[in-house]
Specification:
Layout (H helix, E strand, L loop, with lengths): L3 E4 L6 H12 L2 E4 H11 L2 H12 L5 H12 L7 E4 L5 H13 L6 E6 L2 H9 L1 E4 L5 E3 L19 E2 L6 H15 L1 H8 L3 E5 L4 H12 L1
Helix pairs in contact: 2-3, 4-5
Length: 214
């Protein structure tokens, strides 16, 4: 069992690689962004609370996301967890450490996905996902084989995110550099950090992550 964090700015490819690790290694992706978006889609009280914050590209409170992760971790994961988009602050990182200790497990690796800001704008503004199975696509680099139909599940419910526009991306990037990037030093100091070139093509990034985990 291996528990890892995929760390990187918006559009670095965390979700894309998490899905691949689920398929290849039987790991379980825990994406706080996906959990929050699900709450918005279902119109729950939590969804209503976070909708405006997320649309502006700001981070929601530590208490909310720590609670979500704690609840999901109780289901367990034989192949280990992939923490995708969590932790995003030092407080969240400390909380994750405590949650893992409490369940008798450890954090094995933190994979930093390095990309540059110009590439992120292209990636974010070209992204769309399957509303049914969550598969991630891109207008130029990874379109569906049949236009309008998901390659994985055949659904025609393909959609774009409300926060995937150039203006909101600026705020998301500022939040990343101010609040999340200090985690790079935090995990380096713990001897857990490995960096991969997130600008390489999707298969190459997967290979690099596999090398790190093996
Ligand atoms: P979240 O959903 O986590 O978004 P994010 O971190 O901004 O990350 P993204 O999902 O945008 O990018 P990604 O790295 O997964 O890239 P992807 O694989 O899709 O968070 C959304 C919001 O929720 C936050 O702004 C915040 O408000 C809130 N939130 C969530 N977690 C929180 C927390 N812990 N604390 C507080 N608030 C929280 O790839 C992007 C595109 O690029 C795709 O189109 C893909 O096909 C393409 N692509 C991927 N890899 C490659 C490649 N190697 N080459 C070419 N194209 C590629």
């Amino acid at each position: 069992m291996t528990n890892i964090i995929l760390l990187g700015p918006p559009g670095a490819g965390k979700g894309t690689q998490a899905k691949r690790l689920e398929e290849s290694r039987g790991m379980v992706q825990l994406s706080t962004g996906d959990m929050l978006k699900e709450a918005i889609a279902k119109g729950t009280a939590l969804g209503k609370q976070v909708e405006g914050i997320m649309a502006r590209g700001e981070l929601v409170t530590d208490e909310i996301v720590i609670g979500l992760i704690e609840a999901k971790m109780q289901d367990g994961a034989k192949g280990g967890f992939i923490f995708d988009g969590f932790p995003r602050t030092l407080k969240q990182a400390d909380a994750l450490g405590e949650l893992l200790t409490r369940t008798g497990s450890t954090l094995d690796r933190v994979v930093e996905m390095q990309v540059d800001d110009a590439a992120l704008v292209d990636r974010i503004t070209g992204r769309y996902t399957c509303g049914n199975c969550g598969a991630v696509y891109h207008d130029k680099t990874h379109p569906t084989k049949v236009a309008g139909t998901c390659d994985v599940c055949g659904s025609t419910n393909l959609k774009r995110r409300a926060d995937d526009n150039a203006e909101t991306l600026k705020t998301r990037l500022m939040e990343y550099y101010k609040k999340t990037s200090p985690l790079i030093g935090y995990y380096y100091a713990k001897g857990l950090l490995a960096s991969v070139d997130g600008l390489a093509d999707v298969d190459s990034v997967s290979s690099e992550i596999s090398s790190v985990l093996d």
